[in-house]
Automatic annotation (TrEMBL):
<keyword id="KW-0238">DNA-binding</keyword>
<dbReference type="GO" id="GO:0000160">
    <property type="term" value="P:phosphorelay signal transduction system"/>
</dbReference>
<dbReference type="InterPro" id="IPR000792">
    <property type="entry name" value="Tscrpt_reg_LuxR_C"/>
</dbReference>
<protein>
    <submittedName>
        <fullName>Response regulator transcription factor</fullName>
    </submittedName>
</protein>
<dbReference type="Pfam" id="PF00196">
    <property type="entry name" value="GerE"/>
</dbReference>
<feature type="domain" description="Response regulatory">
    <location>
        <begin position="4"/>
        <end position="120"/>
    </location>
</feature>
<keyword id="KW-0597">Phosphoprotein</keyword>
<keyword id="KW-0804">Transcription</keyword>
<dbReference type="InterPro" id="IPR039420">
    <property type="entry name" value="WalR-like"/>
</dbReference>
<dbReference type="InterPro" id="IPR011006">
    <property type="entry name" value="CheY-like_superfamily"/>
</dbReference>
<feature type="modified residue" description="4-aspartylphosphate">
    <location>
        <position position="55"/>
    </location>
</feature>
<dbReference type="InterPro" id="IPR036388">
    <property type="entry name" value="WH-like_DNA-bd_sf"/>
</dbReference>
<dbReference type="InterPro" id="IPR016032">
    <property type="entry name" value="Sig_transdc_resp-reg_C-effctor"/>
</dbReference>
<dbReference type="Pfam" id="PF00072">
    <property type="entry name" value="Response_reg"/>
</dbReference>
<keyword id="KW-0805">Transcription regulation</keyword>
<dbReference type="GO" id="GO:0003677">
    <property type="term" value="F:DNA binding"/>
</dbReference>
<dbReference type="GO" id="GO:0006355">
    <property type="term" value="P:regulation of DNA-templated transcription"/>
</dbReference>
């Protein structure tokens, strides 16, 4: 089954290029909506797309991207920010808001296609620009994780599902979920909430729990 995407960008060449990149992928990726306003992500068939690829330059969202991204994420949309903005602050704030990936347009076809497939499969994707922002933003408030919590967290980033983690550790998926919930509570308690898998991955990279090269 094809992955469906809504692409929000105000540059016709970018829209044409993204369509061309997606046209030759495996699994197939179909652009079902495209336009220069975030409205196209909500209008059918855009509101049924698996993934929303969002340029922060549309609808004046560079300086007010929080509201736009939050509305999409809160509605359950899987968002990839694809932008000319290379600010570490903007990249990290988008991850905090729950986007599946943050890419600069300089990172091109390979990363956008891979990130789109990962988002459709509910996996985080860390492109080089975001990896650099995460690594440069090591924060002093580390949660106290148990050895088992470290193990579950690391495996969860390396596996495609909680079931795979459970099989590796010979525990139930409910137990995996319990460990992850505890980890999220610990991060929230030190003032660093991580509500999504991508946000939790950002925290783990910042804290040196995992390395991008290990994923």
């Amino acid at each position: 089954m094809a992955i469906t995407v809504a692409v929000v960008d105000d540059h016709p060449a970018i829209l044409a290029g993204v369509r061309a990149w997606y046209a030759c992928t495996d699994p197939p990726i179909e652009v079902v909506a495209a336009g220069d306003s975030v409205k196209c992500a909500w209008i059918p068939p855009g509101d049924t797309a698996d993934v929303v690829v969002l340029d922060l330059n549309v609808d004046n969202t560079v300086t007010s991207h929080h509201g736009t991204v939050r509305r999409l994420v809160d509605a359950g949309r899987k968002v990839i920010v694809y932008t000319m903005q290379d600010s570490e602050e903007i990249a990290l704030s988008c991850v905090e808001l729950g986007v599946h990936a943050f890419l600069t347009k300089a990172e091109g076809e390979e990363h956008l296609v891979s990130a789109t497939i990962a988002a459709a499969q509910d996996r985080p994707y860390v492109a080089p620009a975001l990896a650099g922002a995460m690594a440069a933003n090591r924060l002093p408030h580390f949660p106290q994780l148990s050895e088992r919590e470290y193990e579950v967290l690391t495996l969860w980033f390396q596996c495609e599902s909680k079931q795979m983690v459970a099989d590796r550790l010979d525990i139930t998926t409910r137990t995996v979920g319990t460990y992850l919930d505890r980890i999220r509570v610990k991060y929230a308690n030190v003032g660093r909430p991580a509500p999504t898998k991508a946000a939790l991955l950002a925290r783990a990279i910042q804290d040196g729990i995992v390395d991008v090269d290990d994923l």
